[in-house]
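Subject — a protein and its fold
Encoding — discrete vocabulary of local shapes:
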Amino acid sequence: MNKYRPHVLVLPEDDANRQIANGFLLWPSLKDQNIQILPSAGGWTAVRDKLHTLLPDISKYPDRIMVLLGISMGNRIAGNRSSPMFPTSFGYEFSCSESSACLKS
């Protein structure tokens, strides 16, 4: 994967979500070299913690899209916009849904 070209990193909350993400890679029309599924984080708080470690790297590559994938994570994130989950110093754009939260720099 070329970090300087458009690409997607997927951070799954647990192994079930990792398997779902890997299933999308089986779609024949998908350029899977542009998508990387990271190891399961181990819970939504671990996703939050991992995101904080990835933020400096995300800011280096403007064509990177980060997908946080979890069953109940979207409601927790969307319900608490003042949470440290949303660092204001990076100027990120967040989009939350019931099953996932997406972050694009």
